Peptide chain release factor H
Amino acid sequence: MTPNIPFRQPENGAATLQISTAQGPAECRIFARFVLAQILREAEQAGAAAQVLEETADKHGILSALVRLSGCLADDTAQRWQGTLQWVCDSPLRPRHPRKNWYIGVFRLPENRAEHDTGNPADIVFQTCRAGGKGGQHVNKTESAVRATHTPSGISVRVESERSQHANKKRALELLALKLAARRQADAAGQAADAHKSLYRVERGNPKRVFRGTAFAER
């Protein structure tokens, strides 16, 4: 479920990270949930603002997430996490399972606005509805919330963080562009893995950061 949170324009000292399990098993989703929490914790400690723009979760953890970092140390925080991450641990879900190494990826999405493109404007369908949650009678009487759907991909976002329908529409386009960029990034990564399986194995064997055990102690 996508949280309805304010979305800020790209700025100096900003980074958007995508956490992906690449359809890995449940153990990878457990690891990804830890990584998301740790990124948010490190960002807070560094004085960088962090927002979870998108999160796909299940009972074990998360399959993917988009995290927006902003502030003067956002770039440093992002660089510490970019790449392949490894968790070395006996499976907490499948006793006696022989596998002990679980991998996920953290990718940085492009900040160039030309690359944050939703394509043909005719492909975007907008729907308006009443905003929910707190806010008094205003949000209940005006259809300020906006849902934007990119029809070719089926990707959809809902934004109600602003009172103005125009402002929510603008935020929706920005978030939709980010999600499309994330889809393109994932597709490119999948194609590269298929075309260069030996290189993909090298990447798995050379992780950026390694964590061990159920306490996720970093090596």
